[in-house]
Design a protein that fits this description.
This is Nuclear transport factor 2 family protein. InterPro entries: NTF2-like_dom_sf (IPR032710), SnoaL-like (IPR037401). This protein is α+β, with helices and mostly antiparallel strands and 172 residues long. The chain has a domain of 118 residues: Nuclear Transport Factor 2, Chain: A (Roll), CATH 3.10.450.50. A 6-stranded mixed sheet has the order 2-1-6-5-4-3. A hairpin with a 5-residue loop joins strand 4 and strand 5. The radius of gyration is 17 Å and the shape is globular.
């Protein structure tokens, strides 16, 4: 009896890809992080609703890494099967621009193609994140409003576009 699964499609391999992604992220190694992603990766979260393609998605992670200090990433409950996976993870960091400490608890979902992550979706509580990232009163009082979410999303996308055009870390 033959096994029709290729080594790259085995659930254990996909768990290793997810672990490799978080290890690379924790070390700030965007080259290793990029190797976990399929060239046609799509990413989404409450701030960046939809990013398409490895350059854009890895650029977003690179921009994030350039805009924080004291980053600590941990991942647990990593699961995977032949097609999909998930993990819970947290990022604890200080924003360079404001000096605010943020601890973000995230639920991630992954889809795989050719043994790589082709879809990555992170979900977190935007209101909790905005309270920490934006401070008082903005994040605490209006972190739940559609207007603030739209403003944060627009600003984040604008900063990402500038970051990618400049080819260098974002300032301040």
């Amino acid at each position: 009896m033959s096994n029709s699964r290729t080594p790259a499609s085995r659930p254990g391999k996909h768990q290793q890809v997810i672990r490799g992604f978080f290890d690379a992220f924790a070390c700030g190694d965007t080259d290793a992080l990029a190797r976990c992603y399929h060239p046609e990766i799509s990413f989404g979260d409450p701030v960046f609703l939809e990013l398409e393609g490895r350059d854009l998605v890895v650029g977003m992670w690179s921009m994030l890494l350039a805009s924080v200090t004291d980053l600590q990433v941990s991942a647990w409950d990593i699961t995977a099967d032949e097609h999909s996976g998930g993990a819970r993870w947290s990022a604890d960091y200080v924003l360079r621009r404001s000096g605010r400490r943020v601890v973000n608890q995230v639920q991630a979902q992954f889809r795989f193609e050719d043994g790589l992550i082709v879809r990555h979706h992170d979900d977190f509580d935007f209101r909790d994140w905005s309270r920490l990232a934006l401070g008082k009163p903005t994040g605490m009082l209006v972190g739940w409003t559609p207007a603030l979410r739209r403003k944060v999303r627009d600003r984040a996308r604008h900063r990402l576009d500038e970051y990618l055009r400049s080819g260098s870390p974002i300032s301040g």
